[in-house]
Amino acid sequence: MFRVIVRSSISLAAFAAGFPVSAAEAANAAARSEEDSIVVTATRSPLALDEVPSTITVLDKTAIDRSQDIGATELLLRTPGITVSRNGGYGTATSLRIRGAESDHTVVVIDGVKLNDPAAAGGGYNFANLLVGDMERIEILRGPQSILWGSQAIGGVVNIVTAIPEKPLEGSFDIEAGSRNTVSARAAIGGRTGPLNWRIGGQSFTTDGISAIAPAFGGGERDGYRNRSVTGRAELALASNLSVEVRGYYSTARVNLDSTSGDTPDYALNEEFVSYAGANFDLLDGRFRNRISYSYTDTDRSNYGPLRARPVSLQAKGENRRWEYQGNIDVTRGVSAVFGVENERSRFRSRSPSGSLATPLPDFAIGKADVTSLYGQLSVEPLDGLTINGGVRHDDHDRFGGQTLFAAGGVWRLPTGTILRASYGEGFKAPTLYQMFSEYGNVALDPEEAHGWEAGIEQQLFGRALTVGGVWFDRTTTGQIIFNSCSPTTPNPLCLVPGDSTRRSGYYSNVARGEAHGIEATAALTLGALTLDGNYSWIVAEDRSPGATNFGRDLPRRPRHAANASVGYALPFGLDVGAALRWSGKSFDNASNSIVLDDYTLIDLRAEFRLSENVRFFARAENIFDENYMTAYRYGTLGRSIYAGFRGRF
């Protein structure tokens, strides 16, 4: 079935992307018991969804397969509270925002490794190159999560888990083709034999794409994109209570770019490498679980302009080295704790050479940071059905000293099928290396800070055939870092390169304050082979910087209203059909709200036919009415698109 599992105060039925469940599974849906609850790992301690105080959406493998989405962002934006903006087609700069937070306020985790690019301006993760690939599940945890995930987790966490083999030998493949000469092929193989389990997967994606600049603004040529990636993991059990494991991910991508005024032959290259090695050991008859690990991430980016005398226009490299210990202990029945210590060392280098050969190559801007963190969270179940937790984190930054954060929450599961949730969390984000040490850097920056809370209710009716839910959230972020432009004649000393009299075009400073609040609501209904579901988000994200010209105006590229809906039907002879709708209200492209991005409605049709127990044929038509819209001003978006392919699971 298309199983978008959302067991949270607002999102039990996150948008199911237009796909029905199979007839047999739909018939059993209402009869599922609490023991079948999905276990969440984004909390760093395996918990059933009904025990998580924060709002969370879980997409399992069936949901990911049936979505047919190629990029992870296409899948994520169908869930409540998430908006995405992209500077063109596949592969161009892509920003994901959770509940109106900044795009670099989201932490992305793949198989336990936190991803970010220290050489990026905001230090966040660019979703442009994140394809669905060998993902087994995706968890979206909303609201400040810095207690467990540290700096950047102000908006929330996207936790991705790749496939883990269960059989002695198993494999999978997906291959599809469609509009604009788009071809995607993925395959993986793995197995579990005695103490060893392993899996290796790879993916290749190419497309002629669309013009990054919209045709209305001079774009005409297609800007293509290609992405190649490989993943691997292995775990070896050395004893009943001791195992070691390694994981790795590598991708290389190229995308053609345009200038803001029209077509150009410019292009960008991106390489990402992620590695992990760890040991797991259990004590006290398995009640005390321990993990020691080391991870390394490396992101290399470069931009080229073939028409320039000096083609290279950007060179950037960001590295993270991270040591970690984590412990989970079941103290007694109904009482558990998770705690740990981390050390993260980040480095970056970046430069933007002039196109003129007469101008010498500038030195690389370089910088590094060292953060040591301690965290702990206690979970208590004082009554059957009631879970309360509280946590604290202390970060010791080599430039900003100590910072202590708190969080608390509770969830109450009533016998009436009602679930009540409430939580409070604090966030902390140190200035990025780029913001401090680049050509626009300011070493006097202070950290960004945030706090937020949410409260919600979920109700299951008619034997869980109908579920409705809603949540209210509120978040305030202070000391936000923004880029300030400099006029040619300003006397502001920050408009001079530090230690030099050379003028620069701008600098970073802590001058912004943002506030966001809103409602997320969901509903899902299963009637035999028919499924209906949808979600609606109302998000008010405003600039509340005291004395600012834009005080009270909406933050850019954050629509106040967004909705998703789907209907699906599973026919008895193995054909599943569905339709999906996504509507986004208007938003603004700039801080002054003078540039409007109009509202839009997209409708998709999707179908899947079971050829055998292991092989299926699928097809989809996206944006069937060829809606013309923008998520970023001047940049193009995909029009009507048709794709078809085969999927195998063995």
UniProtKB/TrEMBL annotation:
Locus of motif TonB box: 37-43
Species annotation: Sphingopyxis granuli
One GO CC term, this protein: cell outer membrane
Domain of life per record: Bacteria
Compartment(s) of residence: Cell outer membrane
Span of the signal peptide: 1-23
Domain TonB-dependent receptor-like beta-barrel: 208-624
Keywords, in A-Z order: Cell outer membrane, Ion transport, Membrane, Receptor, Signal, TonB box, Transmembrane, Transmembrane beta strand, Transport
Coiled-coil intervals, chain numbering: none
Chain ranges for the short sequence motif TonB C-terminal box as given in the UniProt record: 633-650
Topology within the bilayer: Multi-pass membrane protein
Protein name: TonB-dependent receptor
Segments forming domain TonB-dependent receptor plug: 50-157
InterPro entries: Beta-barrel_TonB (IPR000531), Beta-barrel_TonB_sf (IPR036942), Plug_dom (IPR012910), Plug_dom_sf (IPR037066), TonB-dep_rcpt-like (IPR039426), TonB_box_CS (IPR010916), TonB_rcpt_CS (IPR010917)
Keyword Transmembrane helix belongs to the record: no
Stated family: Belongs to the TonB-dependent receptor family.
